[in-house]
Design a protein that fits this description.
By secondary structure, the chain is mainly α. The protein has one domain. The protein is 74% helix and 0% strand. It has six helices and no strands. It starts with a helix and ends in a 13-residue tail after the last helix.
Length: 194
């Protein structure tokens, strides 16, 4: 089961990475378009290269309409897409100044508590995100500039949140079993190296 969860979380992280790459290209294209548009409107271009300037403006060179809206939705998805991998690999920041001196049993109990809290938080996030998506769907709310339905941004983020919640619940259950049986059921190298 762990391998399956790890594959899903890696797949989601790849999707999140692809989204970030797409957002980088979108941002660059919008900035270049905005700069060229400003250049074509400049006094120098209007006076000396009016034909080129007008041609550039006529074909629509300028910032991408709704770029902020698209970036906002895309970054939200990317964040939720990275959460499952961060959770299953134990990539969250930890401070183990005090716990390094604890016994193995005490550390296992502490990990059960920590993973149970993470599971509860991820489930709460997924439930609230689902409620927010349904609210946006019911009201038909759209973005201001390009007027795409806001729930479209919630839906892919919800997928990442649900997968993160499922992985967190799985890990909390496995940590509980480890604590009860005294056996290692998950790979020993889980955890961030900070």
């Amino acid at each position: 089961m762990y391998e399956f969860m790890l594959k899903i979380s890696r797949f989601m992280a790849v999707l999140g990475g692809l989204m970030l790459v797409a957002l980088i290209f979108l941002t660059c294209a919008s900035i270049i378009g905005r700069s060229l548009n400003g250049m074509f409107h400049s006094d120098f271009f209007q006076a000396n290269l009016a034909g080129l300037s007008q041609w550039g403006l006529d074909i629509g060179i300028g910032p991408i309409n709704g770029d902020y809206e698209l970036i906002e939705a895309g970054v939200a998805f990317a964040i939720f897409a990275f959460m499952p991998l961060c959770q299953i690999t134990g990539g969250h920041a930890t401070v183990d100044v005090f716990t390094s001196g604890f016994s193995l049993r005490a550390n296992r109990i502490l990990r059960v508590i920590t993973d149970a809290v993470f599971a509860a938080v991820f489930v709460l996030i997924a439930v609230q995100l689902y409620g927010g998506m349904l609210s946006k769907l019911r009201t038909g709310q759209t973005t201001f500039l390009i007027e795409f339905p806001v729930w479209w941004a919630y839906a892919p983020s919800l997928v990442g949140a649900v997968i993160a919640a499922a992985i967190a619940v799985y890990l909390a259950g496995m940590r509980l079993m480890e604590s009860l049986t005294g056996r290692d059921l998950l790979p020993a190298d889980l955890g961030a190296d900070h």
